[in-house]
Amino acid sequence: MAAPLARLRAEAPILLALLVVAATAALAWVVRYQFVEPETLGNACEAANQGLWWCSWRTGFIVFTKWRGFGIGAGILAVLAVMAPPRLAFRFVVAAMVAGGMGLLLYDTAYAATAVLFAGLRAVRLQDAPN
After folding, report:
1. Rounded CA gap, 129 and 121, in Å?
2. How far apart are CA 52 and CA 35, in angstroms?
3. What is the dihedral of CA 27, 31, 33, 38, to 10 degrees?
4. Tag placement on the chain: N or C end, fewer CB within 10 Å?
5. Per residue of the chain (131 residues), what is the pLDDT tens digit?
6. How many angstroms separate the first and last alpha carbons of the chain?
7. Could you write out the DSSP letters of every residue in 63-126?
8. Residues 129, 86: contact at Cβ < 8 Å?
């Protein structure tokens, strides 16, 4: 499995980066519609006196998305990807795509989309850069 990914990274890094965005966006969709938005989960947390074990995780996740954590994190990673040398840049591109993919579906489309755009442009430039 590692050899096809290494070949894809060398030949078409933008394609691999876009696959990462699609996979993390699918994960974010599941998190959003199965963990964050269901009213029954929020009501269960409010009804429990001390709260259930996962209520603090859910609340922390909601606060993190409210303060644009995924979009800002993706933006920082995209800037690092642009500034990093080619050997390290692809790691930052993938990390920015993961954070941006999460942000695209988790209420932070403006920052996340900008970060995904810049990381994608860097991935295209990596295709022409020598390793």
Report:
1. 13
2. 14
3. 170
4. N
5. 556 666 666 667 778 777 888 888 889 999 999 988 899 888 888 887 656 788 888 889 999 999 999 999 999 999 999 999 988 998 899 999 999 989 988 888 999 999 999 998 998 888 776 65
6. 21
7. HHHHTTHHHHHHHHHHHHHHHS-HHHHHHHHHHHHHHHHHHHHTT-HHHHHHHHHHHHHHHHHH
8. yes
